[in-house]
Amino acid sequence: MLLSETHIKFTLTMKFNPHNRKLLMLSAIETYYAAIGMVPDDSRRADQVKARNAIAVALIQWADNQQEVAEVLGRDRSTVAHMTINHDDNLKFWKGYESLYEKAKLIVDNRLSATSKADRLANLTNQIYILEQECAVLRNELDSIPYPQTEDK
Whole-prediction pTM value? Predict the structure, then answer.
């Protein structure tokens, strides 16, 4: 079953490529820090750690894995795992974290949702095309089945 050239071009232009996602994540991080009025640094000051945790957890749902988030934040994967594990407690007990997380989530979701929808559309288009091709093959097979001749008595 060969894919048409038009179908392949459409799929390639619609497909959500990991490099594009990484660029969108970096853009979301930049927008987030500008929105909260903070310049990110590698310090362990509470305000920096809190802001970094909030953006990491907001990004994780859009990433393929924790390593992807770790790379865009310049952190170790195990640090991102730790941020994710402690998220619920941070929401409850870390003053100011919930507000930062809500801002981060809003910015990240806004930036990445359109691309995710394009990816979903490309996947569904592929599935539809493959199913249409399978239907055509089955129709041809059915049409080629000889019908038994009945004898008139």
Answer: 0.66
